[in-house]
Amino acid sequence: MLELTSQVLRTALLIVAALIPIINPPGGAALFLMLTQGASPETRRFLARKIATNASALLLGAMFIGSYVLDFLGVSSATVRIAGGLLVASFGWQTLKSEDTVDDDSRKRVDWSSPQAGERAFYPLTFPLTVGPGTIAVAITLGASVYEGGHKPLAGPIAAVVAASFIAGLIYLCFRYAHRLIDLLGQSGTNVFLRFAAFAMLCVGVQIFWDGVAELLAPWRPQ
Fold first, then answer.
1. DSSP states of 138-207 as a string?
2. Whole-angstrom Cα Rg for the chain
3. Domain for residue 204, yes or no?
4. Is the pLDDT of residue 19 over 80?
5. What are the angstrom distances between the C-alpha of 29 and each of 83, 133, 170, 176, 197?
6. Is there a domain that residue 118 lies in?
7. How many CB atoms lie within 10 A of CB 115?
8. Rounded mean pLDDT, 78-103
9. Could you tell me which of 173, 147, 159 has the C-alpha nearest to residue 23?
10. What is the three-class DSSP state of 134?
């Protein structure tokens, strides 16, 4: 039992350490606020909870069945990176050139309807804002690796659930209290942070795209 617990903790820490820098929940907080302008605090709490749940499901799905789905469809991981990289880069570019800023003026606040909030909770707020194709590609790789190297049969799945739950909790906290980040930074600081986050997303999308192209071209490289 002690050995199983030790393996679960080590594997869960490995998964968290690999995924948190890519997901970057604090960095997505300002983007979350910008994309939910007009939503009430209650709606934002609902969205934060829904996004965390969706993110956890995506991560677990990628780790448990992602590689099998790609094999069944005949889609390579390189193709996923190329298509996903283009999507993330496009989303980052649109956000970067947008003139919108985070404005929580109560006079401009309008309650979102439940259907509208529910529809936007997955796209674009969960995918690609929170869990993008780069994250999914890494999660698929981690899902294959956690079953290797002498792990006990239950250690890998339990560690994946623990790690996904921890990441989901962190996403919820960062998005739930994103307005406090805005209060801390101020309007000017928030606008700068928002543009930086959008530019970082653009760069990440280009990097994911390039990694996919490099993987596809690898067999034709001269030895």
1. HHHHHHHHTTSSS--TTHHHHHHHHHHHHHHHHHHHHHHTHHHHHHHHHHHHHHHHHHHHHHHHHHHHHH
2. 19
3. yes
4. yes
5. 25, 19, 11, 9, 9
6. no
7. 8
8. 75
9. 173
10. helix
- Cβ–Cβ under 8 Å, residues 137 and 19: no
Q: Give the confidence band of 106 by pLDDT, cuts at 50, 70, 90.
A: very low
Domains contained in the chain, number: 1
Whether 211 maps to a domain, the answer reads: yes
The angle subtended at Cα 163 by Cα 162 and Cα 169, nearest 5°, is 90
- What is the Cα–Cα distance from 23 to 167, expressed in whole angstroms? 9
Residue 171, pLDDT score: 96
- pLDDT tens column, 62-89: 999 988 888 888 888 788 778 877 887 8
Note whether residue 199 is domain-resident: yes
Residue 97 belongs to what domain range? 14-110+126-217
Q: What are the residues whose beta carbons fall under 8 Å from the beta carbon of 203, sequence distance 6 or more?
A: 92
Q: Exposure of 79 by Cβ count < 10 A (0-12 exposed, 13-18 middle, 19+ buried)?
A: middle
